[in-house]
Amino acid sequence: MPVKILAIESSCDETAASVCVDGKILSNVIANQTVHAQYGGVVPELASRAHMQNIVPVVDAALKKASVSLKELNAIAFTKSPGLIGSLLVGSQFAKSLALSLDIPVIGVHHMQAHVLANLIDEPRPAFPFLCLTVSGGHTQIVQCKSPSDLVVIGETLDDAAGEAFDKSAKLLGLPYPGGPLIDTYAAKGVARFNFPEPQIPGLDFSFSGLKTAILYFIRDNEAKDKNFLQQNINDICASIQSRIVSILLNKLKRAADQTGIREICVAGGVSANSGLRSSLTGMGIREKWNTYIPAFQYCTDNAAMIAITGYFKFLNKEFDELDVRISARADF
Ligand code: KG4
Ligand code: ZN
Q1: pTM greater than the 0.85 cutoff
Q2: Ligand 1 atom 1: residue of nearest CA
C-alpha cells in the first residue's frame, strides 16, 4: 500500500500544505500573507489570523491537486518548531484535529530539519553523509547530515541570520520588506565595487551584525557628501552587499567541507533562492570538486513539501507523535 501523507507548514507567514505519496510530492500549495509588508516585518498576531483564514482552503487545494481524499491519508505531518507560537498553534491544532477525526497518526516535524531534507525531494539527490548550508530568515546553519534522522549543527550564526542580513541591509537602503529578493534583483545590474568587511569569527560560526553597522555608516557618510549617492549607486551597493554576504557564507562552508572531508554539499532555506549564492556555490563546487545540490526554487523558501518529505522519512521510521505533542518557538533537532 502506498504511504500518503498530508503536510502542513505554518511556522511564520506562509500557510502551506502538501501531499506526498511514497515520497513523491504531488501537490505544494502556498498562501503568502501580504498583510505584513506595510509594517516592515512579520506581525505575529496578524500572521496567526491569516493562517486561520487560509488553512482550510490551502489544505483543500493540496488534496484536490494531488487527487487524494482525506480517507486515503496514512498520517498528517505538521511543523512543530521553531516558529511564531501563534502561527505554529494554528497548523498543529488543525493537523491534530483532522488526524483525530480520521484516526491516523500525527508526525511533528522540525522546520530546520525539513529545510535540509528538501534536498531529497527531487533527483539528483545528495548521498549521505552530506553538508547543508541552511540559510533562511531566522537561521543560518551548517548541518552535517548522516541520515534523514541524524543531523548535527556544526556551525551557526552568533547574531543575525543570513536572510535577516539581507532584509536589514535592504531596510537601510530604504527598500521594502522582505528586501532579500530586491537586493538580488538590483545586484544583478550592478558591480560589487564597494568593500564591506568580512568578520573574523573562529570555527564554523557566522556573524552578520558588523556588516549591518558598516552599511549604516557607509550610507550615512556618503549621503553627507552627496545626497543622491544611494539612489545613483543602488545597483553597485546591492551587488557589494550581496557579494559580502555570499563570501561570508561560502568561506565557512568551504572550511566545513575541508574539516569534515565531505564533498556532497547542499544548500537550503529562503536565501538559497539568491542568484549570487547559487552561482558562487556552483563555481566553488567546480573548483573544490564538490557535488553541489540546490533544491528547486519552490522548495527553498518556506513550503509544506519539505515537511511532507520529512514526514515520509519519519513515517518509515515509525516516528509518530502523540496528540499531546507540544509545539515550541525554539528547539534543537
Ligand atoms: O526560509 P524562508 O522562506 O523563511 C524562513 O524560514 O525564514 O526565508 C526567508 C528569507 C527572507 O529573509 C528573504 O529575504 C530571503 O529568505 N530571501 C532572499 C531571496 N529570496 C528570499 N534573500 C536573498 N535573495 C533572494 N533571492
Ligand atoms: Zn524556513
Answers
A1: yes
A2: 270
